[in-house]
Amino acid sequence: MSASGLLLAAAVQVPLAMAACCLSPGFRRRVPFLLAFAPVPALLAAFFSPDGAFVFFPNPFRMTLTLDRPGAILLGGAALLWSAAGAFAALYMGRKPATIRFAVWWLLTLAGSLGVFIVGDVVSFYLVYTLASLAAYGLIVHEQTASAHRAGVVYVVLALFSEAFLLLAFVMLAATHPDANPLIRDVAATLPASPMRESIVALLILGFGLKMGLVPLHIWLPLAHPAAPMPASAVLSGVVVKAGVIGLIRFLPFEAGLPIWGTVLIAVGLVTAYYGVAIGVTQTRAKTILAYSTVSQMGLLAVLLGVGLENADPGGTMLVAYYAVHHTLVKGALFLAVGILAATGGARLRPALLLTAILALSLGGMPLTSGALAKLATKPVLGYGALSYVMSLAGAGSTLLMLHFLMTVARDARRNPDASAPPGQFLPWLVVAAASLIIPWSLYPAIAGEPVQSLFQAEALWKLLWPMIVGGLAMLIVSRLPKLRGAVPEGDIVVLAKAGGPSLNRLLLGVQRADTTLRRWPVAGLGLLIITALLAGALMLGA
Amino acid sequence: MTPLDAAHVATPGGFLLVLAVMLPVIAVLLMLAFGPRQTRHIALATLAAGLLVAIAIVAELLRSGDALTYVVGGWQPPLGIALRADGTSVAMLAMTALVIAATGFFAYAQQRLDPATSHGRAPTSFWILLMAVWSALNAIFVGEDLFNLYVALELLTFAAVPLVCLDGRAETIAAALRYLMFALLGSLLYLLGTALIYGSFGTLDISLLSEASVEGPVFPVALALMIVGLLAKAALFPLHLWLPPAHAGAPAAASAVLSALVIKAPFFLILRLVLDVAPPQTATYAGQLLAILGAASILFCSVMALRQARLKLMIAYSTVAQIGYLFIVFPLASGSETLPPWGTIVWTGGALQLVSHALAKAAMFLAAGAIAEAFGHDRIADLGGFGRALPISAAAFGLAGLSLMGIPPSGGFIAKCLLLTAAVIGGHPWLAATILAGGLLAGGYVFRVVDRALATPTIPLAPRKPIPRRLELAALVLAVAAVLLGLVPLQPFALLQIGRPNSLTAVAP
Fold first, then answer.
1. DSSP states along A241-275
2. Structure confidence at residue B78 as a pLDDT band (50, 70, 90)
3. CB B110 within 8 A of CB B130
4. What distance, in Å, lies between the first and last C-alpha atoms of chain A?
5. What is the pLDDT of residues A200-223, one digit of tens each?
6. How far apart are CA B404 and CA A166, in angstroms?
7. Is 50 exceeded by the pLDDT of residue B507?
8. Within a 13 Å sphere around the CA of B138, how many CA atoms are in the beta-carbon half?
9. Cβ-based contacts of B443 with chain A (< 8 Å)
10. To 10 degrees, what angle do helices B264-272 and B146-164 make?
11. Contacts of residue A61 in chain B, CB cutoff 8 Å?
12. Beta bridge partners of B310
């Protein structure tokens, strides 16, 4: 096995091995301080593995690991955020017995969420995807409050649905293949010719859309992300939702294209992008606003994916990965910022707020930030028609939502005593914030195919500035509408599920009553006779 | 190609099959001879010996690559008795040995917790009944003759029923009686079917019957009677009236054996009746009927499991639901001219479902037993935080739950994946939807318990007495075994096909 192959394997195995080592009491005590090192192999693999690195583990493990360019970009950003959030968590979570349990769930989620970027075969993808999905439950409910519990239940139900949709889709994909566990790129290549194409694509979009939080499947996201402890929110919102993005990148046939489904993704994405902003501005908690911002940003990613699928443009996936890594780092840094700002007051507050503002406005596309690069890089594929304007306006929405976020955190921090978050928390935050600038800048020429100088032209700056101005003006209007604040509960349409509660209860009671009836002797005896008659009839019919 | 070998020829390792059936019987005789003080030691020795015999049988099967056969006394059927174990039967024998051994180990550890009563009536009866169940199960898995199978099935029922009411409480005696009555009803139907077949064909040997020409209505009626009789014993919905109280009321070790193994025996016989005795095309509609009942079982009883307040009742309802998966195998495993049913992925999927459910369910009941031992009750709502007090049991329950939910990596996942693939390829969207819905509901009821395990109540849950590690270990071993089954390749598994005829064409009338 080559060195790059070993690195890829270690990316998944090291965190799993660390989780297993928690059985030993000596390791258990130290594990919170080792969390920052768990993603290091993945980070090294992302930077040093050549494009197309490939490892195959034979039976009985039957796992294939492979790294392509979009995967490497996402893996690098994700590993960096995991590492920094892990360092943050070591101090943030404190020396409590519960921290060890938190660390185990953390390591399992980490292994799964990094694994989805590098596995190459269908069954292993399902394995690591499920691992990330289910282990994240432990992170969400960690604080054991009533709201965390509710968020956990909603999350698990939707995650299980996502698993079920995907399992069916994967089985349908693999059904037409001679190999029981084909490579993802093989099934994606043959998908357009599959007789079950429409249902497979629908199931894939449902399953991965649930994970990304596309409206109306987003309800778990604004409940779960704020409920988790701060570092966990950062990785949930920054990395774990990207499992859906990489899933769509890997499984949809971008080479051949599917115009109709591309349009569907664009439509769903646009609705999600605007919906996230519209609900987000009514929220009063900083973490919930960030969660709705994630919903909105995932909508923008879905639009980009849809455009790539519509135009049969395999290069579009690179742009999606580029946009996604910008979001990973910025959103991760913003969640950490909420934690920092909550503990910081006095003289340190002002610089911390300033950096937070830069990060926040980056999501709106402020010039020179990663958001600006991501928006400019993706402009060409959006064309110059209506879609481009609609997307720019969505950027204006992001600015509006981020201004709302900034006002919320600034107001919350006003009451802070004169204190400062410990350097052990500041440092990881600064690292992620710096990476959110450096990584997108260094990748820009390769991704966009034009030199960095083009970014400073007036035309490019104007493209970025007018949505920000619109967003700022919108903020002025929104801030004059005090009734808006708290108008929509967290998780918005999840309250609709309550309306369905009574009829569901009636159904369950009906089942219970039916069971009592069926388990009475006369009924069971009659059942015995009826089944005998039916079976005899069926056997005679066949003869 | 002859279907199943018309004349049974004893193979070198055939005596091992006799040993598998007789070893527990010898143990029972020794227990009766040496009295209660020695019962546990004889039982432990037998568990170890039985496990070795099972390993030897697997090794012999793999070595020879053909079924093991033994002809008792050298007399050919229909006069004599033949024992035969093909790949599928051997898998059942090995599963049985593993589950019985782990359960026995649990029971041994549990009895040592309470030295005062460890030589009492209930523990002694338990060991004798456990050995009887083991012998009967092995006899069913290697039997080749419908009447001998009837005898073994009766032995199984009569050994299993008292296991339910070992503690002698009124409610468990009521549950046992319910079980007994319904199982007897099933036996009657089976016996009636056997009599009809003997009257018409003059033989009860499965291989001979599979070649007989089956004109007229007698054969289908007889077959229907036998299958329904077995359904009653397997507790498939809507014939499950006896199972929840019986399995939930029995002591944990007994529940594990009842839920994991005892109800699999009638299913195994139905499988043999449908695939080996019934001519292939007659089974088409019957298979669909069985699948409808199976699907109803999955959906209905999973919802019931979700609604249970007590852990053991929840696990018991989950058993009825999981049994349903076995019955949806029939329409999927139709096979073809070139590919017999046991060459399909469905056969592997069904067998894996059977084995992984046995391991996972036994693990769950044993974990529930440790929980009940520690806290004195099994009300799910009041178990908040039990994961901290009993981490091994909680882990065992969670791992076993993965297998029931069909989450990778686990045997249950591979089973569900293979069945789902077969449903998709065969064009059975409703079965595919049922499999997925069953997985979701299983996720719901497993999650309810896992959620309690992870909870951190303000007043930590404390066990009323210390629970030794070894009591919790048996469940973990079984759960890990269920998860390790997930390493089986995603294709027709060669072991299960050993000794099956490779074409059906010769059987067609």
1. THHHHHHHHHHS-TTT--HHHHHHHHHHHHHHHHH
2. low
3. no
4. 58
5. 999 999 999 999 999 888 999 999
6. 18
7. no
8. 28
9. 156, 160
10. 160
11. 487
12. B379
Q: Closest residue of B to A131, CA-based?
A: B408
The residues in B 166-225 lying below 8 A from A, measured between CB atoms, are 182, 185, 189, 214, 217, 219-221, 223-225
Q: Minimal Cα–Cα distance from B368 to chain A, Å?
A: 22
Residue with structure tokens 């009927």? B289
> B331 near B431, Cβ under 8 Å?
yes
Interface subset of B 349-408, CB within 8 angstroms of A: 405-408
Chain A residues with CB inside 8 Å of B306's CB? 508
Q: What 8-state DSSP symbol labels residue B70?
A: E
In a 3-state reduction of DSSP, which class is residue A305?
helix
What pLDDT is recorded for position B235?
Answer: 93
At residue B5, the pLDDT reads: 45
- Residue B494 forms contact with A (CB below 8 Å): no
**pLDDT band at A272; cut points 50, 70, 90:** very high
| Chain segment B314-363, per-residue pLDDT in tens | 999 999 999 999 999 888 876 555 666 766 788 888 999 999 999 999 99
Pairing state between β A63-67 and A53-57? antiparallel
Q: pTM of the predicted model, to two decimals?
A: 0.92
Distance CA A363, CA A375 (A): 9
Q: Do residues A176 and A192 make contact, with C-beta atoms less than 8 angstroms apart?
A: no
DSSP secondary structure string, B397-426?
HHHHHHHHHTPSSSHHHHHHHHHHHHHHHT
Nearest to B196 by CA among B214, B216, B221: B221
Burial of A479 (0-12, 13-18, 19+ CB in 10 A): middle
Mean pLDDT score of chain A: 89
